[in-house]
Amino acid sequence: MSVGRVRLTASLVRGMSRVPGGQSLLDAAKSNAIGRSTLSKLLVYRRPFRTLGEAESSLAGLGGSGHESKEYANLHLQLNESARPSDYAALYYMEKVLPAVRSVFDLGGNVGNLFYCYSKYLKGLEGVTWTVMDLPENVRRGRELAKERDASQLTFSESWQDASGVDLLIACGCLHYFEKPFAQMILELKQKPPYVLINRTAMSDGEPVATVQDNGFSHTACMLHNREQVIAGLKEIGYVLEDQWRAPELSLEIPGYPEHRVWSYAGMFLRRADVSLPARA
Q1: At a CB cut-off of 8 Å and minimum separation 6, what does 251 contact?
Q2: 12 φψ region: left (φ > 0), alpha (ψ -120 to 50), beta (else)
Q3: Which residues pair with 132 in a beta bridge?
Q4: CATH of residue 107
Q5: pTM above the 0.90 mark?
Q6: Non-local CB neighbours of 198 within 8 Å, separated by 6+ positions
Q7: What is the pLDDT of residues 222-255, one digit of tens each?
Q8: In a domain, 239, yes or no
Q9: Residue 101: how many CB atoms within 10 A of its CB?
């Protein structure tokens, strides 16, 4: 089935779910094996999956991830020209901890979008080394752009282990592309960062499922982690939740499956239990 047909089917299912009795009919279809199978075949990749691998497999022959596409990088540079609603909570906590921060690790930071944006708002960021981890093509583009913009404090990495020992770990718009729980990822580091900032992450209140984001020019498999499970996992490895917020600028819907709808993405700030927020000068 072509991408156009999948999008049309998803639109029809979404419309059906919003008319009186429509969702009940869809739920009745999903309650039996034949109905579930038929709906799955019609929606192809616009449905829930058990694993990220299954979601990625559904894209076979349709054009897969857009993470390394030039269009994807340019889009996110444009989106980060100025702060978005969820950035203000992130900037608030970054400003609070900045006196104790000399190194930042920006997981999935593309070509340095967040660095360029936050540099406009945060005083004192000049003395901070900011490392972006991303895929090889984005790292290559990021280094070229940093050279063009004379951003000497911005560095790039393809290794998660380079996050060990940093003062602040940022995961903005990326955790839903990892199937492994974030707490487990942090435990792989030799030294856990004192501060963790999560923002613009697709998290649900239901059971974790995988699906595919379709933004019009690319399709990307993603994982909808359960918000409370993410928080509980981080608390278990020694973190304290300082605050959490919503990112209203982003949402995600799986047509016909309202139980998995993400009305707004999530943000939160955590600190290691053995450290505190710096006192204001």
Answers
A1: 261, 262, 263, 264, 265
A2: alpha
A3: 106, 156
A4: 3.40.50.150
A5: yes
A6: 171, 172, 175, 182, 230, 266, 267, 268, 269, 270
A7: 999 999 999 999 999 999 999 999 999 999 999 9
A8: yes
A9: 22
Is 278 inside any structural domain?
Answer: no
In a domain, 133, yes or no: yes
Q: What is the pLDDT of residues 141-182, one digit of tens each?
A: 999 999 999 999 999 999 999 999 999 999 999 999 999 999
Length of the chain, please? 281
Domain count, the chain: 1
User: 120 in a domain, yes or no?
Assistant: yes
Contacts of 26 (CB under 8 A, 6+ apart): 13, 16, 17, 39, 256
